[in-house]
Amino acid sequence: MTDPFTLLYPSYATTTTTIAIHHGTNGVVSALPPSLSLFSLVVTVASIFLCSVIAMYFYRSYRFSGFGYLLGLPTGFAILAASFVFEHLNAVYSYSYANESLENLFFWIQLALQSEGFAFIALSYMLKNRSNFATINELLPAASKILFSPQNWIHSSIKIREIIVGVLPMILISIPLMVTISALFVQPILNETELKDMSLYTTLFDIVVLGYIFVKCLKPLVKAANIKLLYIPAAFALLWLEQYSLIIHYFDNNQFAFIGSIIVRLAGLGLFVYAIYYALSSGRSREMEIET
Amino acid sequence: MRQEKRHKLQLFYEILVAIEGYMSNNDVTAAKPTHIQHTSRLSYDKMMNHFNELEKKGMIIYRRSNTDGLISITNKGKQFIKQYNELMILIESAGL
Domain B8-90 is in which class? Predict the structure, then answer.
């Protein structure tokens, strides 16, 4: 008997299971069962809604303050919301045997967008203390001087460090695109095995990036001894757990891990929205205390 | 002690809070620039520049006189304080 969640997201399941589903018992092309389609739709709509709320509030903060580094977070969540659309489309097309290429394409886009979304969120944390850092326009002439003047090599270790730190955000943003696009260079027509390998690489990237975000987010709150505001690090920890569950599912084909990944994702995004609501409501109550 | 460089937005916030605080503490409708200067820790020239900018943005009303003048906060200024507080709490809660 095939597990319903393998039926829902066969791209994550083993190749043998997927083939069995695609052909069915009589070789008839099957469609996604209505209940699973509805479940996928509900999960997608909920994820998009929560991501949109987060993106909207942080975009408002960016518009109000004009701090450029704040733009990474809403952009990241908006991209993440777009990735959930393609996740749903992938689930829907998983059962259309005639449109296997579309299914693979949607899965490819979903993986690329998800990693890019997390990379943009990490960018906000990476750039938050960089207002005093040299801009790239200042760094490029310095880089050419260091590279083409060997006498400067010994005394330029600090400059080199600055260049590496300055270029790091660009590398971070380009990794998800490079990994996904390089898969097309290896084989222009995406196949399931290749996509599964790519899903492993992008999930590992997501785990590393979310770990970085978690540490960067937690540090200032612990320093400030602000335990009441630990909801957002906890939300990032849940999103990390989602990716970890997908890794378990990749190696073990454990359906509980896959169901768990969906649950912790929704819990993580929900907690993030609750943290925003909590922060804003505590701010309003503080204002009222000052007024009275 | 070396004072950390403040962002313009933070300076506006501190000036507006100083005006509002002075007005509510002393139960008056306007504050004197010298009082604001003391609270916001700014040089007189810089503070005057910020007053002009805040006045252009409609956040304060500056009634100039030969001696010192009087400043009062507008509803837009009060709204700015509220939004700034919310923004700071949101950014702080995200560890940004």
Answer: mainly alpha
